[in-house]
Design a protein that fits this description.
The chain is α/β, with parallel strands linked by helices and about 550 residues long.
Amino acid sequence: MTIPLSEQQWADARAAAMAAIPAEVQAAGLPAVLLPYQARTVSLLDSGCPVLFVEKSRRIGLTWALGAYAVLRAARQKSSGGMDVMYISYSREMTREFIDACGMWARAFNSAAGAVEEVLFDQDSEDKAINAFRIKFASGFEIMALSSAPRGLRGKQGCVIIDEAAFVDDLEALLKSAMAFTMWGGQVVVCSTHLGAENEFNVQIQDILGGRVNYAHLSITLDQALEQGLYRRIALVTGKIWSPEAEADWRQGVINRYRDNADEELYCVPSMSSGSWLPAPLIEARMTVKTPVLRLELPRDYMFRSRLDQAALMAQFMEELRAQLAALDLTPQFAFGFDFARVADLTAGSLMAIEQRLKRREVLAFELRNVPGVEQKLIVRTIFQHVRSRLIGAAFDATGMGWTVAEDLGREFGLREDPEGSGIVIAVKFTEEWYRLNMPPLKVAFEDDMIALIADAEHLGDIRAIKIVRGIARVPALREGTTGKKRHGDHAIAVALAHWASRMRFTEYGYVPVNRAATPANGSGWDFPANDDGRRDAYRSPLGAGLRGGL
């Protein structure tokens, strides 16, 4: 509940808002006045975007920018796309602040329009047309403030702005009423700071990131706003001198004041106590593939045994691997995920087929414990060689030693340096942002029955190990299992990587690696060390890649 302001406090606040009218609007035009993220929001809406969700930091001036858009939209004639604009928030003070911002923009635009003999208002004065909760334009359209009751939108048409949507009483019902606006060319704008991971606002954001709905989406954190000039504008308005040191000090002061709430209030990370990401019954319902998981654990002295003993220890696993590969239907395309480990954790691999209706089906999975890197690359190479003509992407955990595996296999099958580029092997360095953007689509696949996994009790536990940490789904640091054989959600990471690789936009096939039998062109006699299979060779210039296509 907001603290009521006295009449004098409110008068002071309104006077301060009026004093902030940017003279630059007339001199430089709207784009120069708005900060880049504000201008991007207005431009996206002005282009006709029907539904836009914005998750944002506190007090970055987005409501101020939306006020500019509201005036631009309502002041136009109907033939130019004009329409009524309705503003909804959870408090009376916010509503009056928005109308004040719109009044400021209306006066600025009216002055600019007068220079080219156009009008925004009828002959009545501006002051009469602009009151506390409504602004009337000569176009016949209005900006009006409404309550957050869903029934308030019934029978209306135009653009509705739901500000701080996470805090309204019934956002789900409000959106249900608002979406009818889009049927006749209206718009729905939903912006807010987060209020917990289970709030309807975050549910909608997760559906957007997961691809379940095709609403437009923007995320604006405090740091992004600062990079695009927020503190420079604050210093300008407050009469302070900007400097990098002053900005850093201001930023740290804001973070310190928010304390434990800084992630949610400033960095678009919804808060939630740690909990399971997916329920066990849902995971089990997607474990419908009967293929057995291939597991290999080598003795600790494996590296000190003879080559013959090493080959014997690998033989049975490789025979089972080749048997499963031989049984694969090579009609669909494939994607691969690989989570590397050498000592404490398991190496996990997951090969997924992309069916005709785009369901991802895990057709092969393996786990390796205490297996050296050379043998790991041999196993992955064997898989790649078998499905090479149908493999569209292979994502490797590259946050540690997994980078070397990705790099070496990239030499043979093409290394993709960025998700939009070419090559089969993609090295992924996990970040919070990667989890935030790419775990929601995986969750949607589980919920919509668009993924099928191999039935395995250990793998069920791995996926159950994914928790909500600081509002983002990821595998926490805590390991589970007996001493010396702990699991760390390893297969869950492999599945996430394979699913991500399956959604890459571009593919490359027919890649021709460097010729391993050639000698150096310069005649130096220099040679590379032995390959994984024991042969010695050198590289010559690659022949390049074949045709590139899309999924």
